C-alpha cells in the first residue's frame, strides 16, 4: 500500500507528486507534473472507477 500526495508549491507551476510506502514511511517516488499532466491523470482515474 502507498500514500500519494499531490502538493502545490507556491510560485511554482504544476504539482509535486510524492508516493510514500505506507508500511515503512519511505519515499518511493517524487516527480513534478504540469497542470496538463495532472488533469489527464485525474480524468483517467475517473474513467477507471
Describe this structure in words.
The structure is a single chain. By secondary structure, the chain is α+β, with helices and mostly antiparallel strands. The chain has one domain. Helix content is 29%, strand content 41%. The protein has one helix at residues 35-48; strands at residues 2-7, 15-21, 27-33. The chain has a three-stranded antiparallel beta sheet with strand order 1-2-3.
What features would you highlight for this structure?
alpha+beta, 1 helix, 3 strands, about 50 residues, 3-stranded antiparallel sheet
Outline the fold blueprint.
Layout: E1 2-7, E2 15-21, E3 27-33, H1 35-48
Antiparallel strand pairs: 1-2, 2-3
| β-sheet strand percentage | 35-45%
Uncertain regions: pLDDT < 50 for 5+ in a row? none
> Compute the gyration radius: what is it?
12 Å
Distance between the termini: 18 Å
Q: Quickly give the structural class.
A: alpha+beta
Overall geometry comes to: flat
Strand order of the largest sheet: 1-2-3
Order of helices and strands: EEEH
Helix content: 25-40%
Summary?
The chain has one helix spanning 35-48; strands spanning 2-7, 15-21, 27-33. It has 49 residues and is an alpha+beta fold. Strands 1-2-3 form a three-stranded antiparallel sheet.
Amino acid at each position: 500500500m502507498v500514500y500519494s500526495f499531490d502538493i502545490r508549491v507556491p510560485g511554482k507551476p504544476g504539482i509535486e507528486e510524492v508516493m510514500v510506502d505506507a508500511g515503512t514511511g519511505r519515499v518511493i517516488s517524487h516527480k513534478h507534473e504540469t497542470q496538463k499532466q495532472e488533469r489527464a491523470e485525474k480524468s483517467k482515474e475517473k474513467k477507471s472507477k
